[in-house]
Design a protein that fits this description.
18% helix, DUF2958, DUF2958 domain-containing protein, five-stranded antiparallel β-sheet, 2 helices, alpha+beta, single chain
């Protein structure tokens, strides 16, 4: 279950690999606001990378939006199967609720550095 902490961070399990820090959430929200202006001010830079630790699935995220209270959508480039990626929206709530093998969850790449999204 996805929770927003008092700090503003988003967490779907205990542990830093299953949490988006508050500063990153704010940055991704600012990118979403810039895209809403439709003036080309959005950067197209991925500031967050999520991945499946036991199989295929990588999400490079450039925007985040709270579409309803407690419901978060990510925008970026998702590649579920190598070579078959696409830009689009993904539900962070659904990613956080995914039950993977060995009791693992979708994780944040803690060592990811912001980079332009390239296909």
């Amino acid at each position: 279950m996805l929770k927003q902490l008092k700090s503003g961070a988003l967490a779907w399990r205990k542990g830093s690999a299953c949490m988006i820090p508050a500063a990153t959430v704010k940055l991704l929200q600012a990118e979403a606001a810039a895209q809403d202006k439709k003036d080309g001010s959005g950067s197209g830079i991925a500031h967050l990378k999520l991945f499946n630790p036991v199989g295929a699935g990588t999400w490079k995220v450039s925007e985040i939006r709270e579409v309803e209270p407690g419901t978060w959508h990510l925008f970026g480039y998702a590649e579920i199967h190598p070579g078959c990626g696409e830009f689009g929206t993904t539900s962070l709530n659904e990613l956080g609720a995914a039950k993977l093998q060995m009791g693992l969850a979708i994780e944040r790449d803690c060592y990811f550095t912001p980079q332009p999204i390239q296909v």
